[in-house]
DNA sequence: GTGTCGGCCGTCTGCCGACAA
DNA sequence: TTGTCGGCAGACGGCCGACAC
C-alpha cells in the first residue's frame, strides 16, 4: 500500500511536509485501512452521510430530497489518497479522490487479491497509554510503563546515576518535542519530566486521552495522541447547515456518477461509525461469495481501549434495508444483529456484510434464507449482472 | 427588528440561554444588519458561495456543475433569524431560515419602508480597544482608555485610596467574567488587574485582537471580542470537501426553490465579503430606482479598525456580469469600480448596486448608459415583470 | 494619556522520593 | 509495577509606580 501522504499538497514533495504513514495509522487505530491508490473501491453515499451526521451532530432531515439517480453504491477507481491531521486537534482523516466507473469500465474491471484491504498492521515497537490524572497534572511528569520504555525508548546508560537522556519525538505535523527521560525513584521507574507539561498543554490533553510512542525502523521516535471519546466535541459548523452538507455530498456523488468525473471526499476514521469506501474485492467477496442467513452466528472485530483488537460475537437477527425509503436495495448495514455482550447500545444494531465473519462457512449452494440472490446488484449497477463473478478467483 | 436570539433553540426561551442582540451586533460590526423576521429578502447563492470559498479558503472549482434551474437571486420570506457565536472562537454568525416565494406570492408581495434594513446602530455606551503587547502579556493587566472607562464603567468611589471596584461582565455565551477595576499609578490611569489574565488566556487573545465593553440600559456590563484578521485562520474542514460544500448550498437552494420549501443558511458577517441576504425593498430600490452609469462617482461605507464607519469614494468603471458563465444576468457584484484610495487591492474591485451611494442622483428618466433596462429582472423571476414598481412608494 | 519597564512578592510549576494499591 | 502525595526550590504571574513618548 503506497500512499501519498503530504499535508500540503501544493508544496513540493519534501520530506518535511509529509505525514508519517505509520504514525497516522497508529492514531487511526488497528482496524482502519485505506484502500490502495489506483485500486477499485465501492463508495457508499449512505455511509458518508452517516459520517456527516456524526460530525455535525445532526441526523439527516426527513424532508431531504432523494437523489433517485444516485445508486446506493458507486464502483469507483481510487485516484488518490492523502493522509491528514487537523492542525488544531491532531484528529486524523484521509482525503480520497474517487472516479465512478462507466458501464464499459465496470465490465472490464479486474482486481487483485491484494486489493482486499487488510487492516493495517500496527507498528511493532510502539506503546499507547491512557493518561492518568497524575500524568496530566501540573504537579509532575509522565509515568512511563516499564515494558513500554524498554521496548520503544533508546536504552539508558545505567552507569549514570540516575540514568537519564533527552528524547526527541515528532508528531503528525512533524513538530519536534523534547523530553527528559529519567529512571529514578524508589522503587525505580521511567519518567518523562522536563518538556512533558509543554506537550500536554499544547495538545490540550486531559486525563483519559491517550498518547502513543513509536520507535520506527529509521530509529525515529514518533509521538501521536488519541483523544478520549468526549461527547459533543463537534461544533454544528457555522459554515454550512447540516442539511446542505448532506445535500452536498449527495450532489457531488450524483454529479460525478453522471459524468464519470472525479470527486473528493474526506474519511474521518475516528468519527465515522463504519468505513464507507470499501475495496471492491472485499465487497464482492462479502456480498456474492458469502451466504448469510437469519440465526447465523458471526464474529466482528472491535478496537479495545488499549488500542488493540478483540472479537465480539453475535447472531444475525434479520436482513433488510436499513433505510428502505432513501436507500432501497442497499447493502449498507443490511444485516440486523444481536450481540452476545450488549453494553447499553454500545455496538451498532446493524452491520454490513463485509464487516463480519460468519462462523459457519457455507459451501456454494443455496442457503435456507438466501440474501437477495435474485438481485445480486442493485438496479443502478446492472452492468455488473454480466460479470462472471465465479471467475474472479476469490474465495 | 425583533430577533429570536437563543443559542440553544431546543431549550425553553429562558433568559440565560439567549444571546444578547446588542452584543452580537457590536461584535459583528457597525455595517452588519440582519433583515427582520417575516420580511421579504433576496438571497444570492453566488454571495453565499463566496462565503464558503472564504471559509474553506478555496475558490470554487471551474469543473463544478451549474444549477441551470437555480436563478442568481431568490426572493424569499425570512422565517427565522437566530444569532449565534462559535463556542470555541466566539466568532459571530447568524442562522436564517428562508422560504422561496412562488410565482403567486411574488405577485402579491408587499413590503414596508421599514424593511430597508438600515445598518444596526451601535450601542451608545460602549468602547472597543485593540489590545497592545502589554495588555496581553502575563506581566500585567489591561490599560483602560480614560474616556472609555468614564463612559462605560460604573463610576468609582474616589473617596477610597486608591479607588477600585469589582466589575462583572458577561460575554456572548452569557459566561461571567470578573475584573478588578482600579484607578492608580502616576499619572493616574484606569486598569483592569485581577481576572484579566484569565480572560485573555481563556479567549486566547493576542496583541492586535480587540475587546469591547458595553454598558446597556439594564445596567449590565457586556463583553465581546473581535479577533484581528489573521491570515489562514480557517481550516479546510475535514468534514466535507469544499467542492461538495459549494454543491450543497446550491442544491439546497435549488431544491427549496423548486418545491417552495424552507432551507437554512449560515451568514458569517466577519467572513463574508458581502451580505448575501438583502432586504427586498433595498434590492428593488437599488436595482430599479437608481440609475448608474460608467464614469459615475459614488461613496461606499467601510468599517475602520476602530470599529467605526468611514466612506470611501470611487468611480464606476464598468457594468457587467461578475461571472457570466455560472451566473449570467446576476446583479451580484455587477458594478466594476475603481477606488480613489487604493491600497493594494484592499477593497473589492466589484460591488453590488445596493452597497453604494451614487453621488449624483438622477431623476427618473433614462440615463445615458442605462443598466439593463430591457431586463429589469432575470428570467427566473419573470413573475415580477408585472409589478407596478412605481406604486411601491419607495424613493 | 498610555505603553512598557524594573522591582518585588506570592503563587504555582515541576522535580524529588515516600508510600500504598 | 505505578498512581498519588508531601516536601521543596526556583520560575513565573501579576501588582506597583517610574518614566518616556
Automatic annotation (TrEMBL), chains A, B:
Residues 127-229 form the TF-B3 domain. It is found in: Nucleus. It comes from the Eukaryota. Belongs to the ARF family. Homodimers and heterodimers. Auxin response factors (ARFs) are transcriptional factors that bind specifically to the DNA sequence 5'-TGTCTC-3' found in the auxin-responsive promoter elements (AuxREs). This is Auxin response factor. It comes from Salvia divinorum. The gene is ARF6. The chain holds residues 1 to 395 of 881 of the full protein.
